[in-house]
Amino acid sequence: MRNIWAVCKKEIKTYFTSPIAYVALTVFLFLFGMFFHSIILWFNSYSMQMAQNPYYLQQININQMVFPSLFHNVSIVLLFLVPLLTMRLFAEEKKIKTDELLYTSPISINQIILGKYFASLIVLSLMLLLSWILSILTFVYGNPELKPILVGYLGLFLMGAAFLAIGIFYSSLTESQVVSAALAFGTVIVLLIMNWIIGAAGGTLKEVLSYISFTQHFDNMTKGILDTTDIVYYISFIFLGLFLTHSVIQSRRWR
Amino acid sequence: MIQVEHLFKKYGDLTAVKDLSFSVEKGQIWGLLGPNAAGKTTTMRILTGYLPATDGKASVGGYDVFEQPNDVKKILGYLPENVPLYPEMTVRSFLHFVAEIKQIPVTKRKEAVEKAIAISSLGSVQKRLIKNISRGFKQRVGIAQALIHDPEVLILDEPTIGLDPAQIIEIRQLIKTLKGDHTIILSTHILAEVTQTCDGVVIINEGKLMASGSLQELTASLQEKDGVFIRLRDGGREKAEHFKNIPGVDRVSMRDDGYSIEWTRGNDRRDDIARYIVEKNWGLMEMRPLAMDVEELYLRVITGGRVQ
Predict the structure, then answer these.
(1) Under an 8 A CB cutoff, do B78 and A6 touch?
(2) Residue A99 to residue B84, Cβ atoms within 8 A
(3) Could you read off the pLDDT of A145-170 as tens digits, one per residue?
(4) Where do the domains of chain B lie?
């Protein structure tokens, strides 16, 4: 555990001495704010219109009308930013040959991978935590339900964590940060748009694809529905990503 | 302390190390010599547990490198050919990180970092970013990270490369002071380094062991004749003929502005030669043993040639 923390601390320091963390945080918060602003504006004018009709007024719900679409938009922002956070993790070590220091020190490959993964998770959590400030505003001016919003945030966090695990795997494959970012980006997009293909598919294929698809699982959570299947899905994705990373590093050394 | 037996390493079709065996006693400094692509770095990487061997055995401090890699890594300090440094970190925070991953307990970490900084004279740059310090300092940070956990065994891949002459001497001094408590293997191209710092050498070429042993042993085994180099106040070819007439002298040759005189090993003729010169009043300016220097030794071994 101490070794994981040592690696994690070093990675966090590197995130914040290089501009990566600041860029990711700024871009994320700016886009989050933009989406939040435009959805709230739309919701506002919609509410005004509906206020004349008591029946429709009852239908208006900030939890259903603002947050699901906000979370969907933000998930796209994460898709762009996560490869930025992971691309460096292993590719850079290989490029500047510092992997030789890590692999000749008395720490295991698993500890190295987990240390780096936790560091990227911490930056992701920081992004989400800071964006929470905007969500609090809805409590000041309205009365949304807390639980669905928290579930939505959990969904964003788990999805981001799965993206990170995929990104870290691609970072272990290559020396080039650009290649690793591009591959991670491509894979995550495929997982996100898989539900477009699902429409065309049928039978077992449809079932399999919709299980694999990120969006399908994310959808429930943005609506505030907490289902263990979805959580298990993301956690198994994280395990797969980290396991593949371990295999790549191990096999590279045996070649 | 370090034992290598029948080591093989293949990269696909390329065999980088072929049937390599040698051993290094505790507290000694040994040099790993060989031309480029001889397998020096590969051998060191196997010893440090960075790369697994294809076949054979290697052990460090009694621990098998393949069976107990973590025990080996705990007692081993390694300076790779490309010094592993994080450019975005300061010298001090980098050494602190290394101290952490080398399992130095929290209470002793600060002390270990201070000591490493002092030994490698890094005090003046300790707060600067590694990317901003000079090559010589980077090399010293590399040595500091290898030493930080006071390992029993040090493996240094070309420790003096890229340094200026004054720094080279400093690093050599540093390595010599480490002798005794630490067992050291260093690889180098600079042959003078071997004569000045090492107790023995392992010479490899194309992954194969060409020779190993202490410098004296190796020189002795390769050289069948002993000799002296002599310089006189005024030389001349005719004087060479005189030397040839001294009983026991096998060969005299003119070289540079003097003579090299050789005889069969064990049949020392130095007294006779000196007496002869003094009697003739030729003015003896210089007389030194014709010991084979390490460069000659190296070339002979690498080319497989022998001293006639």
Answers:
(1) no
(2) yes
(3) 888 899 999 999 999 999 999 999 99
(4) 2-219, 224-291
